[in-house]
Amino acid sequence: MKEFQKDLIDWYVKNHRPLEFRLKKNPYEIWISEIMAQQTRIEAMLPYFKRWIKELPDIHSVANCDDEKLNKLWQGLGYYSRCKNIKKCALECVEKYNGKLPQTKEKLLKLSGIGPYTAGAIASIAYGQRVSAVDGNVIRVFSRIYDIHEDVTKTSVKKKIEKLVDDSLPSKEEISYYNQALMELGALVCIPKNPRCESCPIKKYCDALDPASLPLKAKKKARKIEYKHLYIWVYKNKIHVVKRADTGLLAGLYGFDELKPEKSIESIELEPYVHIFSHIEWHMNATLCIVDMEDKNYKEIEEIEEHIALPSAFMPFFNQVKEIVYGKSRN
């Protein structure tokens, strides 16, 4: 095990990506980065992370930030419930820990939106706690090392792998590098398809005969398909936006109407669009409806772009409308 740890850490020291939020070991920045990266590649997440940290440099600033601004900073990352949990967690930290994240995995797990992986990442990387941080990358690495031919989506198999990871942990002095090394190995070498086994620093410890076939996962259920027709009301260069219900998909965010306006001067059919969520597909058509009256829910295009978090499910229609509206104003 000592040789395994050494080979892995030596590789990490020479080959890791210079991710500033990990190198600085700032607990707050590690927390935000890990939440953002849960469904997004780190390279794609970085611009959002940098923008967020510039606007909200610490936990107190998040706790004091209004929800509209938070949603706008989160726009493009999806899973807005995670953004809501960041705010809840920040408020909890201000109330209980003077605006800091606690140092132990156990206390971190009691905060809103922080699961075992994120708690382990913060505790080990920022605070040097000797605990594991098991994400999808680490599960893949260990399922291959130990040639585990069981469904890793099952709780019992996850616990089995977590036990193997816990048993592999080095001393507190090396834990930060070790956990990051496992993450980097899964992200750069032990990748899901076509793993780069020839470049793997721990291939001599790996029992997998066919690494690319692992980890085993049960087939996902087919996504439910929902059909929607949106009506995008436009008055001059303003678009009618409505706040969605506080429950359900895209709760509390802004979107477009699903009812026709009572009167419209002109109607234009837009290009249809399919938006895929993790468990649902929205097959959407949309009609641009030009009207001759406005109310407080009409927002200028620039205001929407700068201040309103419009989910990516609606962005293709927004972009089409913007082209049409600006085209008409130029004509």
Protein architecture, described:
The structure is a single chain. The chain has 331 residues and is an alpha+beta fold. It is 46% helix and 12% strand. The protein contains 14 helices and 8 strands. Strands 1, 2, 5, 6, 7 and 8 form a 6-stranded mixed sheet that branches. It has a two-stranded antiparallel sheet with strand order 3-4. Helix 9 crosses helix 12. The longest helix has 18 residues, at 80-97. It is elongated and about 75 Å long. The mean pLDDT is 95.
Top keywords for this entry?
single chain, 331 residues, alpha+beta, six-stranded mixed sheet, two-stranded antiparallel ribbon, 14 helices, 8 strands, elongated
Q: What Rg do the Cα atoms give?
A: 24 Å
How many H/I helical runs?
Answer: 14
Assembly type: single chain
How many DSSP-defined strands? Answer: 8
* SSE class: alpha+beta
Distance between the termini: 72 Å
Beta-strand content: 5-15%
- Helix % is 40-55%
Question: What's the order of the H and E elements?
Answer: HHHHHHHHHHHHEEEEEEEEHH
The overall average pLDDT, rounded, is 95
Largest sheet: 6 strands, mixed
Show unreliable segments.
none
How does the overall form come out from the CA principal axes?
A: elongated
Care to give the gist of this entry?
The chain has 331 residues and is of the alpha+beta class. Helices cover 46% and strands 12% of the residues. The protein has 14 helices and 8 strands.
